[in-house]
Amino acid sequence: MKQKRYIYGIVGCLLISMMLGISSCDGLEDELFQKNSYIIHNGWQDYALEVAEDNTTILPIYFGVNGTSANDKDICLTMEIDPDTLQKYNWEKYKNQSDLYYKILPTGTYTFDADSWTIPSGELNATAAIKIDLNKIEELGSLYDDYVLPLRITSSTGEPMGQNKYTKVLAHIGFKNDYSGTYSGKGIITQQGTTYTTEITSTQLYAINNNICYMFVGEKTRANTPDYLNYVVEIERDEWGGITLSSEVGSLEFKSYNSKLSRKYTYNYNDQRYYTEITTVELAYEYLDKTQSEDLRMTFEGSFSMSRDVLRVEYPNVDVEE
């Protein structure tokens, strides 16, 4: 009997403790952590922006508010260009190799859609739309340079800004059309008059409008060629799908032999909603390489392909191979 009373006593104490615990939980605030506003895609971000017919594009910047409860306030944000963060990034990445520094997108080539942006009460996000004009980039800078638009939140009313690293973005600006991108394959660079050759296994086509891309000749890239602007070639696609290679760099002495762009579609058996689009570019040209102490005339021949999945409903009239 005494043992039963002892057990009942323990159970009673446990029930009282649980009730007290529940009562204390009911007394907690809804928000366990401090709410903060921030840029959702912060830090270094690579963008491949679609170019519109008017040669402009939109860079979206997404704002958010964190926390464990619903947002019950209008949160007003402002944002500005942040060159100091880009300068710090360049120094930490490249030190004294200033020729490799990313360039800030020139003032006058972009416009913000507003002076401030509001995350409405009941919502967790808002979007800033920054319009970039490629014609202005050509006028005020170079379409062949590698640009970054550094941004940071400067004020936040309604809720405070988050930690510094979450309120900044280095937007690495790239453009795309339907044949730009990274191609894989094989290309052979031959020094004329010798048996010396170099092989590359990929090439990159960078879009500057809907029909024109550019590339760097041979094995040249921004990373391995300080004067990379002297090795630029444009690729222009005509209305029939053919391409023409040309260069405005006279010292390059560029000559195109034969260039071809072709495209085919195959069934995607892993996902019936898609076709697989395969784009192939064949290139043959010569150029003058002036990076050595002696000018060298080089010949290039190569074939490269790029594949991507495309929705069938957007390509109703293409011929599809088995």
TrEMBL record:
**UniProt cross-references to Gene3D superfamilies, sorted A to Z:** hypothetical protein (bacova_03559), Uncharacterised protein PF14274, DUF4361
Task: Specify the signal sequence span.
Answer: none
What are the BT-3044-like C-terminal domain coordinates in residue numbering? 167-304
Where are its TM segments located?
A: none
Task: List each copy of the BT-3987-like N-terminal domain by range.
Answer: 35-159
Q: What's the name of the protein? A: Domain of uncharacterized function (DUF1735)
Q: Which organism is it from?
A: Bacteroides thetaiotaomicron
